[in-house]
């Protein structure tokens, strides 16, 4: 692919990349949208009968920004279905996120895809769906002699590509897939700052952007300097640096200790049931030792699973969301004489004096306290960290902090934080009265100082 446009290095790297999944994550005013549209257009012009797709999350942004830019840059009009038809038989469709589904893309294969403002998507569900459609045959893979490249079974190969342009947005799904844990060398990340493109921007604009380092540091770090690590919103309950530190605490689990469990039961068809277990590793210190999810399981299966896990981790307390199917599971589990079951009702008032308006808020901010103070070691699971970073709060009245509900999260396309809820309930009902202390370690020939804690004491020196 060639271009006569004078591109700066990061722009050129993005435009010329032949990897399957290309992401251009950079500051504002660096030309991301134009280059993505140009790349899709050039591909469709070069390869007859190619099927291109441009996607943006919200309809309004697609209509008033992305399509408007396309019309201005290429002087082309879309039909009533938001589709452009090229003379060589290629087409380019424009869809918003809600239209990216089997009904609209049934039996359709795509050759090239452009995702505008990928940071607007809260998770990778749209990416995964589009990935399954990337099987077009408009662009054959040829060798230097113009012959088809064949695989070991003699099958022809074809090239397809997805191009994502975005701003930094913390440790989101784009950061995970392209920067933290790319699954193959076909995930190509290109990064840049606003100031990399200074030669194409006015001096007044550059000066204005630099002034925001002092007046709006969060905006500056994310939108100009392309920072992933800067905490960008004041309404996040958890901070990414706390989560990373917590997952690396490496606490040792005593040979004899008590366990606490939490069970978040799926409420919707695409939800998962999550079960997690904590081990007490010290005075007011816990470690997440088990976390697993199940899909499409009914109450009998879930109950059997929980009881089986007790044999391995004999937890004394179990917090269960007491809503819908969760309430049924709680009722089934209540007959156990091995552990105490607590039904967790999110909107219920906390017991006793509490600064929080409901148990949901109290549980989440308790979880945040334990993580930020290194009282809890969480799993290094990146999906758990993503869910934790999706939990937000808002104020109602003068000072009451409410957690954004699951229903509101779903309405904004955010996946239900099942792992977080299970973890929060496990900690909320954990019994800390029977904790061992250093003085309680049983050493041969030495009488323990506090006999009531011997049940959970370490029986041999560590």
Q: What does the model show?
A:
- The protein is of the alpha/beta class and 462 residues long.
- The protein has two domains: 216 residues, Rossmann fold, CATH 3.40.50.300; 177 residues, Nucleotidyltransferase, domain 5, CATH 3.30.420.
- Helices cover 32% and strands 18% of the residues.
- The chain is built from 14 helices and 15 strands.
- The protein starts with 8 loop residues before the first helix and ends in a 34-residue tail after the last helix.
Task: Quickly list its features.
single chain, 462 residues, alpha/beta, Rossmann fold, Nucleotidyltransferase, domain 5, 2 domains, 7-stranded mixed sheet, 6-stranded mixed sheet, 14 helices, 15 strands
Assigned CATH class of the largest domain: Alpha Beta
From the spread of the alpha carbons, the general shape counts as: globular
Q: In percent, how much strand structure appears in the residues?
A: 15-25%
Do you know the CATH topology of the largest domain?
A: Rossmann fold
